[in-house]
Amino acid sequence: MYSAIIATLAVFFVANNFATARGSQLGCNVKEPKNDIDWSKMPPRWYLTIHTPDEVFSNVVACQVIENITNPETHGFRLYIKNYYLSGADPRRFTFHAEKQDGSSIYHGAGEKGTIEADSEITPTDYNLEAVIEATKTGMGKEELTVATDYSTYMILVLCDAEDDEKVVLVYTSTESTSVEEVLQVGNALSEIQATTQLQLSECPDVDFRK
């Protein structure tokens, strides 16, 4: 099963490189989704099962779980998040808040208190320095955030750092493991917003969520 999923991810990566070479996508010039997000329709729980290879989610966080989503304001939303660690350290909770830019469906978001520590912890007294740097950039709220979802199978967050011409793609699914069919759905959704890129599976299927 996992070999088939990995192969599917590889196909989307190759297709993205071909499309980029033909000039259909420039840097992280992500296309706005066709429809705005209705946050009231979101399920409360999502698992980060697929993501861009980076320091935080490849070497620190085994699985990230969104435990609840609220939209206290019509132009914004708040995620209540729990991180599970590759090191076996106790899980940590934090929140992420984002607000929409005027006249668009693009958000600017920032992690709230404890985000940097939660995204870089190895032990209670030791942190991954490269992950600290990545988490700090996200915490500053300078990145543009694009959201795509079908309200049941997947929720995609694309963080774009225009200054460094880099994007991070985070794919959350409704269960801790994903299927080839779900990967195909995600790939099509990423293509629609021109955000396909190299992706890898998270360690969510191996995490003990009883902690």
SSE blueprint:
Layout: H1 2-21, E1 46-51, H2 55-59, E2 61-70, E3 76-85, E4 92-100, E5 107-111, H3 115-118, E6 121-123, E7 126-127, H4 129-139, E8 144-149, E9 154-161, E10 166-173, H5 180-192, E11 200-201
Antiparallel strand pairs: 1-2, 1-10, 1-11, 2-3, 3-4, 4-5, 5-8, 6-7, 8-9, 9-10
Cα-atom Rg, whole angstroms?
A: 16 Å
Number of helices: 5
Backbone structural class: alpha+beta
Secondary structure: helix percent: 25-40%
Mean pLDDT: 79
**Largest sheet entry:** 8 strands, antiparallel, barrel
Shape: globular
Succession of helices and strands: HEHEEEEHEEHEEEHE
In the CATH scheme, what's the topology name?
Lipocalin
- What is the rounded distance between the termini? 27 Å
CATH homologous superfamily placement: Calycin beta-barrel core domain
Which second-level CATH architecture applies? Answer: Beta Barrel
**Biggest sheet: strand arrangement:** 1-2-3-4-5-8-9-10
The unreliable regions are 10-27
Q: What is the tally of beta strands?
A: 11
CATH class equals: Mainly Beta
Give the DSSP E fraction (strand runs of 2 or more residues): 25-35%
Count of distinct structural domains: 1
Provide a descriptive summary of the structure in words.
The protein has an 8-stranded antiparallel β-barrel with strand order 1-2-3-4-5-8-9-10. A hairpin with a 4-residue loop joins β9 (154-161) and β10 (166-173). Mean pLDDT is 79; it is low at 10-27. α1 (2-21) packs parallel to α5. The chain has a single domain, classed as Beta Barrel (Lipocalin), CATH 2.40.128. With 211 residues, it is an alpha+beta fold. The radius of gyration is 16 Å and the shape is globular. It has 5 helices and 11 strands; from the N terminus they run αβαββββαββαβββαβ. 36% of the residues are buried. The chain has helices spanning 2-21, 55-59, 115-118, 129-139, 180-192, and strands at 46-51, 61-70, 76-85, 92-100, 107-111, 121-123, 126-127, 144-149, 154-161, 166-173, 200-201.
